[in-house]
Each structure stands twice: as C-alpha cells, then as structure tokens.
C-alpha cells in the first residue's frame, strides 16, 4: 500500500500508485534512491530517544496504531510495464513499489528507518542476524586482495570471520591491533590498501572503550571506512555522531530484549546501503540474509521502550559494580572511576543513559569462575548461565571458554581475556535489594568453600 503523510509526519496507508504518473505525482517517476530510507527526522539530531520520537510513525492498513505486517514474499503490479521499470531501478520502495521481500519489504524497511533514527544515520538495513550484517558490510567494502585493520578484542565469531573465513574464502586479510594504542593503529593502516578499520564501541568481553572520534580521524586520514559494532551500547553511544561511517548491531541483544529473536542491522550512508542492495554487486541482495517481516514487526514494537530498558540495565550494572568492588572482587565496569576509559566514555556518551549494561568479574581461573556462576544460578537464582546479553534476566558466561573460545590462548592473552573472566549482562527483574542479597549469598558460599579468599 502507498503512503500519505499528514502535517505531523505520520504515515498512513493509501492506494497503490500507478507507474504511469496519472496520479499527478510526476516528481516520483524516477526513484529517489535516498528517500526510500528517509526517517523524516529534522536536520538537528539531539539524542537517540528524541530521534526515535521524531521519526515518522507507520500506521496500519486499516488505521491501526501499529503498522501492518506485510508477510508477502512477492508483490503484484498494476500494469505489465511496471515490473520492467522496477527491475531497471526506475521505480522502487520510495514510491511503494516492491518486487520481492529479499530485496525490500515494507515492514522490514520501516524497522530500518527506526534503526537509522536510533543511530543518527541516513539509512539502515535489517538482516537475519548480527553476523550477517557484519559479514555483508565488510564484503561490500573490501574486495579480494583487500586489507582491514581490526581490534584484537572482538566477539569470537567476528574474530573467526576475520582470522579464518575471509582470508580463505575471499583473500581478505586483517591486521589485529590494540585499539587503545593509536600509534599502532596508525602504523597498521596502509593508505590505498587498508579499506576498513573495524572495532567494537565497548569491547566484548573486556569492556574496553574505543576512542571513536580519534580512531575515525586516523582511519579517514588513511582513506579507510570506519565500521563500529555498537551491540553493547545502544542509546549509550552513537558512533556515527562521533565520526564513524557505519554502525552494525546484533539486534538480538539489548534492542530485542527478549532473547527470542536473532537479527542484525547495518546503519550508515544511504549510498552504501543502496550499494549493498544492488542487483549485480550488492552483498545483502546477493547473499540474501533476509529478515522475516514478522520479526521486523516484533522488533519495531520494542524499540520505543529501548531507552527505558537501557537506563535500568545501566543503573543496576553501576549499583552492582560498586557493591561487588566493595566485596573485594576484581570487577571491570566503565562506570567505575578506576576504569581506564571511564572519563573517555563520559565524554562520548549520550547523557542520562549510563555506562552500559554489562560488567565483568575476573576470578583469575576458570574453576573459580564456574564455581561462582554455579552458586549464582543454582543456589541463589541471581541469574542464568547462558551466552548472549541484553535479556531482562541476568545472564552470565565465562568468556574464554564460551563466546571468545574461537580465539586461541595467545589471542585471548593479547585481547586481555583472563581464563576466569565472568561476563555478566545485568537484568532488571526483581528488586535491587532482592537481587543483591542473592549475589551476596552466592559469594558467601564461594568463600565458605575455600576456593576463593580475599
């Protein structure tokens, strides 16, 4: 269905346009490649919550306050000539002409507009997983024989993609660096050869904070594109507003919040997203990591309260980190003043969202880490031993033997991942007093066992 917009910027469904121009809208005969991603945002971007509230609202086909789910895989046309024109690129989603849902789907497209508003980018495209978003954008930016520079400390799946898959399958190599050492980053980048600088805004799992403005400056001086994974810090950090070119997400985490959906997103310039959807050369178009429209609808209903959820995740993480530190445990959290990048994060963060919803406890050995998690789950019900993050329940894992297990021992040591590092994604169920009491009881059991002494 086509769209009509009232003075408030709300979008209502309407009658499908004719491709002949008889509807009196000749200005739209040739597709405006940027407008299909338009968020309807004012030019002045304030913060993620304000941007989301200012984005256009899609109503349902029959006037429902929620948009309709367009579950069709393929779409009809009104005149035979229309299909030829769609495949020629003359008519597109900006005029509500859709071909096939691997290309563009109205429901998924709307979620993309929300993600673009959230990150303050021109465009966004939502994918079937976070890894599909990462791999697609890197393959679009870097061809065979190309070179990238990336942080040593990355999610294990991303590290494996860069270390093993891309060199073998695509002849794309990566130099890994300490992202805190800007001279090392600069020296690793070869002007004219290095196509991408890739890092996580807050690293998985060590919670190292990247200096996004300075790293972006270094990369741009070398002619490279900056790609930042912002999965750990939606709302907290806005990398594109700090100089990054592309922002990727595993939407499965905080943005979803329910641990029930696998999804990803690429947020960046409209020309990049359009190139990724090109019929001949587009990585998204040709690799086909398509998001299901029903998934897109579910996610679009969750994004409006992401800000509220992130504030509570971050608030509780700060409270727990402060209390855990007082117990004498080695806690890592960017909100603590003794964290090496505490002041850096303060200088970059969007105000009032906190310092992130994850903290780490370094128990030094895997045995101690496992014993602590066992007590926290099975004795006091503080949280669950499970990978992933951003769930409303607290999730815990020993990173070295789970989500970072793709890194060998030497790579883990270079990344700063201790064998006993427990990554905790702080949930918000229950009261703070109740949950803290559960942590204290678990820690007391650990001390009684004699395995851990201050």
From TrEMBL:
Residues with PTM N6-(pyridoxal phosphate)lysine: 253
Listed InterPro entries: Cys/Met-Metab_PyrdxlP-dep_enz (IPR000277), PyrdxlP-dep_Trfase (IPR015424), PyrdxlP-dep_Trfase_major (IPR015421), PyrdxlP-dep_Trfase_small (IPR015422)
Annotated signal sequence range: none
Bias kind Polar residues: ranges: 1-10
Molecular function GO labels: carbon-sulfur lyase activity; pyridoxal phosphate binding
UniProt keyword terms in alphabetical order: Pyridoxal phosphate
Top-level taxon in the UniProt lineage: Eukaryota
Coiled-coil portions: none
A cellular component annotation (GO) from this entry: cytoplasm
Cofactor(s) essential for the protein: pyridoxal 5'-phosphate
GO biological process, one term: transsulfuration
Spans annotated as Disordered: 1-25
Record-stated family: Belongs to the trans-sulfuration enzymes family.
Annotated protein name in UniProt: Methionine gamma-lyase
Organism: Populus tomentosa
